[in-house]
Amino acid sequence: RIHLDYWSFPHASPGIGFFEHSDPGDADFGADPEDAFRFRRIRLEMRGDILETMNYRLQIDFAAPGVGEMKDVWVGFKELPGNQDLRIGNQKRPLGLDHLNSSRFNVFLERPFVIETFNSDARRLGITMYGNNSDDSLGWAYGVYNLENIKSDGEYRGDSLQLSGNARLFGSPWYDQTSGGRGYWHWGIAGMVARPDGDSGPVDENSNEARFNTRPEARSESSWLDTGRIAGAEWYEILGFESIVNVGPVQVTGEYQLNWVQRDNTGPDLFYHGAYIYVGYFLTGEHIPYNRGSGTIGRVKPFENFFLVDRCFGGHGTGWGAWQVAARYSYLDVSDADVLGGVGHSITGALNWHWTAYSKLQMNAIYGEIDEHAAVGGFTEGDYFIFGARVAIDF
Amino acid sequence: RIHLDYWSFPHASPGIGFFEHSDPGDADFGADPEDAFRFRRIRLEMRGDILETMNYRLQIDFAAPGVGEMKDVWVGFKELPGNQDLRIGNQKRPLGLDHLNSSRFNVFLERPFVIETFNSDARRLGITMYGNNSDDSLGWAYGVYNLENIKSDGEYRGDSLQLSGNARLFGSPWYDQTSGGRGYWHWGIAGMVARPDGDSGPVDENSNEARFNTRPEARSESSWLDTGRIAGAEWYEILGFESIVNVGPVQVTGEYQLNWVQRDNTGPDLFYHGAYIYVGYFLTGEHIPYNRGSGTIGRVKPFENFFLVDRCFGGHGTGWGAWQVAARYSYLDVSDADVLGGVGHSITGALNWHWTAYSKLQMNAIYGEIDEHAAVGGFTEGDYFIFGARVAIDF
Amino acid sequence: RIHLDYWSFPHASPGIGFFEHSDPGDADFGADPEDAFRFRRIRLEMRGDILETMNYRLQIDFAAPGVGEMKDVWVGFKELPGNQDLRIGNQKRPLGLDHLNSSRFNVFLERPFVIETFNSDARRLGITMYGNNSDDSLGWAYGVYNLENIKSDGEYRGDSLQLSGNARLFGSPWYDQTSGGRGYWHWGIAGMVARPDGDSGPVDENSNEARFNTRPEARSESSWLDTGRIAGAEWYEILGFESIVNVGPVQVTGEYQLNWVQRDNTGPDLFYHGAYIYVGYFLTGEHIPYNRGSGTIGRVKPFENFFLVDRCFGGHGTGWGAWQVAARYSYLDVSDADVLGGVGHSITGALNWHWTAYSKLQMNAIYGEIDEHAAVGGFTEGDYFIFGARVAIDF
Fold it and tell me: Closest to B2 (Cβ–Cβ): which among A52, A56, A83?
């Protein structure tokens, strides 16, 4: 998997510069976001079975080759009673839809505010049981996870284990087998109960994992919406709802998530929430497939691949691939009481050109506003326009 | 190869906290060891032949994906006269048995004190000749190595080459072919002569490699037994003895190693030594195979794999894998004259559940004592209880 | 690909110590270069096709496993009209011959002064069109690239894009098909126009990429010839000429490159240039193959591989591989006006022992002089003798 990005920031109001470069000690304090070319993903992967009853996956990302990052690294038991599989290791924790979709298949370049904020980077060290009923019309996943992201050091060290319990139940009551899955309705509900270490201090190896932050649905340098580590956080609970309706080339998808944070006497309890909805349409008539087993979307197969070659007998041969347009509205509120992470609104337009089932060019144009943010350089709000493009292949 | 660990430190006397967090400038000076979940090994590997007469191995560990570590990276010539092979590159230097055993096959989670101390991390850049007599009843390995561990930077730079010469001779005078190797006696003797740079200063690129240290046979953060870099060290010589007696499901293995260090007029010569012995027993009757060519133990194959699956015709199918219990006593003395690295005793109980030949769950319970340690925070001794568990697969 | 090096510096005049260790704040300021054993290249690689019309290459180097480096990471479209291929991603920018030759095939251990200086590390993020005429007697490559080397972080961030346009045209008017390419003449001409950000300051994410530097055709720690980042540089243009004449076992290869740098009113414009020429000869009669499609040299195949094995019926079997000698003269002048990067002359003798087509031992002896260097520790010149050896395999 190779994803190569270009990100441009043609407009950013002054406040955005302070959210991007927020350290008063730096020379670039308050400077505008700068454009970037970057590899977003470069993954080496191995997967396979261990005899008949076990399997594994090992995936390391070298988009920044100087510092690799752990992705899926797990060991599994297959075909357990109840049509279930068990996986132990670093893996996506079940919460919401968009993060469980592979980055290879998602309609937009970056995930919505609420998804990145409440399930940041998705993968954690833990143990998950996956299951389905006999006709795959219903599925579930539940497990226990450590809250710390160990993508760089492969280790959580700390006496406060900072665990979460997660569960997701989903179904596809309508799935049109006859047309090969061109029509379906997916629903899902997920929950997470987490026990962060809000009191961790300099004697502890671990940090307080009660923090909710996200970039502006684009690869800026910093998180423009950010609660910081919430001192005194003792518990938080997230509840999420998801739905996909797909009718041939048209798909409408939305999610809503709520997050309650309890603190010790450091401050009052907090409530955060966010949502998104998108509509996608294939100009060339393809559809977004659905995987009933995992409750996620799958690989788009163009009716005709993109090619432009010399023919042996003279002249050129051409094909035009699959073309998809999409629009997304996204909302996040992580400002409550004394913790002012900001409130964000964002609208994204997308144009996806699928060259083949394994390669595509994606383009996003994003307009967004942030307000109710804790003051940085005197600014509590800002608005921005961002353009992003990606060449994406997998193999 | 994926090894995923859990380490817990339910008991540690006050001194242990100071050996674990020994820097008076840190906020956690003297704090108790903290529990950890961590990947111990995640390895990407290539190996193969170059035409008929050469071979190679390339192995990088990404357990902490942010900083890869070099493991076996060598180029070899095969089938040389005298039934020998030559390997050039980063490889295990011959000294002792337990470090030459693959971490995939070892009976205990971590290697004994004396093995880790006198042959820390085992692999060094060097050149080794491996050979066997015609019926494999006798084998040898000898070579020259750089003393610095180049696992992170792939480079030794320094005018003082800091080399060692190592050699190991081993045999298996009794090996019961009829039973497929369920009975055997292995003996071995190894030696190492090393020339560290005890006078390296700030003008030199290299550091003094005369240091002997080890963790408590568990993945603590720090080395609890540690001589530090021994100033003025000019030479050291290690002699090691090893033995395995295996009778069906029972194995008794032990090693003893002696280490003499000579210094310039910085201080008197030093003598260190250590030993271990373990007994293992398969409740389910399997045995630990032996590789006569390399003089190391091999892969355990359960009589019946572990599985728990739904049967097509109803009911569950089950298998219980192989179960092994083992106990180890370990001893190390790296305190002599003015260099007080500590004296350690350790007892480990092990329970190994082999799911298949390629996957297992290992559990260790460790009780140990350290004394004669240079005072840290006023403490020269301590005792501890540690519990460790590992899910291990290879492929 | 595994390359394992030994580098020794038996002679270095006092000035060389200051070029090697040039920081007055360091304890080793002015100290002699120190010898080194090091892995020069350890590469993991994947390459393949995406259906019929696309391809990709993914190559990461772990010679220093703690910090991986990006090499070729690109996505391509094949068989475009005009007999052309398009590649997007991190790839070698077309300029000169020696850097486009694979490190697996080059005759000397390290590339000549002028090649490393004007096309440092060669690979950049960009887009290249490769093409050939119908009988491969003519070829071309042209493209646009970012100037920053993103080998470690996979990202260029900065509003000044710092681009270059590169183009190379080459031909092989004489290529002796009958003898399998034992005789040929290759010529090439290449140009590069670059727009560095000579005014980048602390507010910018990016650094000024107008810098020309190189090691002494050996793996010293530092660049002994180095202009530093040239303040105020606005543009630079490079022109390069290349030629190979090969007659059976003899090859004569040379290149000449000129570099004009324009500055704003920081200082006057600058002119740099350099050249090299080498002669190689196979004592055993083989030849260096030539790839007409890419205009670069290829893999040497020994008439007889090197081996030394026991024969089944007694006695040894032996083969002696291919033996090649070569000599190179190299020159670089990066001192002009107030920017005194130094003037270097270097003579290298090489002995290459090809064990097989995929493995070899290379040895270089290098004598060189540097003068007109900006004073470091009071020295503006120096001379040195270096010895290097490499075991190189690929697979």
Answer: A56
Q: Which residues pair with C156 in a beta bridge?
A: A37
| Residues on chain A touching C50 (C-beta within 8 angstroms) | 356, 358-359, 393, 395
- Interchain CB contact of B85 with C (< 8 Å): no
pLDDT more than 70, % of chain B: 100
Which chain A residues in 190-229 lie under 8 Å from chain B, judged by CB atoms?
A: 201-206
Whether residue B267 contacts residue B213, with contact meaning beta carbons closer than 8 Å, is answered with no
How far apart CA C43 and CA C48 sit, in angstroms, is: 16
Neighbours of chain A (3+ CB pairs under 8 A): B, C
Please provide the DSSP assignment of A299-315 as one string.
----SS-EEEEE-TTSS
CB atoms B64 and A153 under 8 Å: yes
Hey, which residues 121-180 in chain B have their CB within 8 Å of chain A?
A: none
- Both tokens of A291, joined, read 């995987």
- Give the pLDDT of residue B109: 98
Rg (CA), chain B: 22
Rounded CA separation C240/C122 (Å): 14
Distance between CA atoms of B306 and B393, rounded to whole angstroms?
14
* Encoded tokens for C166: 């590169």
Q: Which domains does chain B have, with CATH numbers?
A: 2-393 (2.40.160.10)
Phi, psi torsion values for B161, nearest 5 degrees = -70, -20
What angle is formed at CA C149 by the lines to CA C143 and CA C152, rounded to 5 degrees? 135
Determine the pLDDT at residue C178.
Answer: 95
**Which residues from chain C sit within 8 angstroms of residue A34, using beta carbons?**
157-159, 204-206
Q: Which of residues 285-344 of A touch C (CB under 8 A)?
A: 305-310, 316
d(CA C8, CA C2): 20
For residue A90, which residues of chain B lie inside 8 Å, CB to CB?
A: 39
Q: Does A44 touch chain B (CB under 8 A)?
A: yes
Minimal-distance CA residue of chain C relative to B77: C307
pLDDT digits (tens, 9 = 90+) for C22-80: 999 999 999 999 999 999 999 999 999 998 889 999 999 999 999 999 999 999 999 89
Structure tokens at B114: 């004396």
Residue A94 contacts residue A128 (beta carbons within 8 Å): yes
Q: What CA–CA distance (Å, rounded) separates C161 from C143?
A: 15
The whole-number pLDDT of residue C89 equals 97
As beta bridge partners, residue B386 has B366
Total residues belonging to chain B:
395
Q: Does B82 touch chain C (CB under 8 A)?
A: yes
Is residue C307 within a helix (H) or strand (E), and if so which, with residue range? strand C306-310
- Token readout for A161 is 């284990």
Distance from CA of C134 to the nearest CA of B (A): 35
pLDDT digits (tens), chain A, 395 positions: 999 999 999 999 999 999 999 999 999 999 999 999 999 999 999 999 998 889 999 999 999 999 999 999 999 999 888 889 999 999 999 999 999 999 999 999 999 999 999 999 999 999 999 999 999 999 999 999 999 999 999 999 999 889 999 999 999 999 999 999 999 999 999 999 999 999 988 889 899 999 999 999 999 999 999 999 999 999 999 999 999 999 999 999 999 999 999 999 889 999 999 999 999 999 999 999 999 999 999 999 999 999 887 776 777 778 899 999 999 999 999 999 999 999 999 999 999 999 999 999 999 999 999 999 999 999 999 999 999 999 999 98
Which chains reach chain C with 3 or more Cβ–Cβ distances below 8 angstroms? A, B
pLDDT at B16 over 80: yes
**Neighbour tally for C193: CB within 10 Å:** 14
Q: Exposure of A307 by Cβ count < 10 A (0-12 exposed, 13-18 middle, 19+ buried)?
A: buried
Interface of B with A in 359-378 (CB under 8 A): 359
Contact C154 A310 (CB under 8 A): no
